[in-house]
Amino acid sequence: KGEMDRLYKIRPIHKRAQAELLILGNHLKEHQAVRCYLMSLNKFQFALATRKVRSIQSSIRGILFNPLGEPGNRELIWFTKLRKYLQLIWMLRNQHLEHIYILNDDSLVASLNKRYIRRNFFISLPDPILIPSEGIEKQLDSGIPIRSKKYRFLMFGSLSARKGIFLVLDALKLLPKDISSLIEFVFAGKVVTHTKETFLASLSDIKNNRPDITIHYLDKFIPYRAIPELFSDSDCVLTPYYGNQSSSGVIGHAALYGKPVIGPNRGLIGDLIRSYELGIVIDAIDAQKLADTIHFFCNDKEAYRKTIGMKRFVKERHPNRFVQTLIAN
Predict the structure, then answer these.
(1) Confidence (pLDDT) at 169
(2) Interval 194-243: pLDDT, tens
(3) CA distance 62 to 38
(4) What is residue 129's DSSP assignment?
(5) Which alpha helices (H) appear in the chain, and where do they start and end?
(6) How far apart are CA 171 and CA 153, in angstroms?
(7) Is the pLDDT confidence value at 161 over 60?
(8) Chain centre distance of CA 34
(9) What are the distances in angstroms from CA 206 to CA 134, 171, 176?
(10) C-alpha of 163 from chain center
(11) What percent of the chain has pLDDT over 90?
């Protein structure tokens, strides 16, 4: 406990990351471990190339999220790509790095292996979809609204501007009344702290000025046991994300329960939606396009029912395959 207390007091973050890795190195040496797995390399990218950390003799494998992608915030895209490229170059100084795993992106993996002339150093890892146990009990206190006859659209997870929550709210305002009375929206998850006040104000404004639109907001962490009911009771899942070079576990849940998604045409998420026929892509993510797509979906829902591609997407991302990929080679 004392060791952890001291660790959390270390600033800045890159120094704390180095301290964490040095503690890890001591445990690896004590237990004579030949290999370790870091489930996220991102915060350790600088520390991994420092002299002290490079002295750790065990081989290291880890997952690198959004390695060269867009930031999803106001940071300039060219600056982000340059920063991430330099971080990657710096991290590769550590010769004990054995494999770097990248979620769901075969083309990026092939490009990086070619660029750095390291065969099979970067490995595409299927983002696992958690399959619920048989006979999982329904949560009586889940707070999920009772299923109605309306088309239900769902936004799920950690809700933020980067995930498009304000884009969705703006799209709701643009929906024609002949369609808004036929649909309902569920925001399920915690809104990030720095945008919550703005989100609640916008939500209140819509409820006051557009009483024809039904909105449910589940302001809490959604437990694993509630996910089957939440997705099964929805008709469509909204993923209008910015910074879409990263993957999303939400589309995995949607595919598992046979629910189409509406998301961006560009980036990794767009590639997955198109390749596996997971739903509808929007060329330009803006409020009017999203409102039009929601309207279009309601008029032609059957065209986006469960597809063979959804089943294939789920099969390729079974947790067993995730583990097999990690321990192979």
Answers:
(1) 96
(2) 999 999 999 999 999 999 999 999 999 888 888 999 999 999 999 999 86
(3) 4
(4) P
(5) 2-8, 13-30, 45-48, 51-54, 77-91, 106-115, 165-173, 177-180, 193-209, 227-232, 249-256, 267-276, 287-299, 308-316, 319-327
(6) 12
(7) yes
(8) 31
(9) 40, 11, 14
(10) 9
(11) 64
Q: Tell me how far apart the alpha carbons of residues 239 and 256 are, in angstroms, rounded to a whole number.
A: 16
Phi, psi (degrees; rounded to nearest 5) at 158: -80, 110
**pTM given for the model:** 0.82
Asked whether residue 77 carries a pLDDT value surpassing 90, the answer given is: no
Starting at the edge strand that comes first in sequence, how are the strands of the sheet with 122-125 ordered?
35-38, 59-63, 97-103, 122-125
Is-cis flag, bond preceding 145, omega within 30?
no
- Give the position of tokens 């990086």: 112
Distance of alpha carbon 282 from alpha carbon 221, whole angstroms: 29
314-229-317 Cα angle (round to 5): 15
**Which residue has 């690896």 as its token pair?**
28
88: three-class secondary structure by DSSP: helix
Residue 122 pLDDT greater than 70, yes or no: yes
Q: How many CA atoms lie within 13 A of 264 on its CB side?
A: 21
Neighbours of 64 (CB within 10 A): 23
SS (H, E, C) 154-198: EEECCECCCCCHHHHHHHHHCCCHHHHCCEEEEEECCECHHHHHH
Angle (CA) 255-256-259 rounded to 5° is 45
CA distance 192 to 184: 23
Closest of 220, 243, 158 to residue 195, by C-alpha: 158
List C-alpha distances in Å: 5 to 2, 12, 14, 53, 297: 5, 15, 17, 21, 52
Is residue 245 very low, low, confident or very high in pLDDT (cuts 50, 70, 90)?
A: low
Amino acid letter, residue 127: D
Spatial distance between the Cα atoms of 61 and 132, rounded to a whole number of angstroms: 28
For residue 88, what pLDDT band results from cuts at 50, 70 and 90? very high
Residue 74 has pLDDT above 90, yes or no: no
Provide the token pair at 167. 């884009």
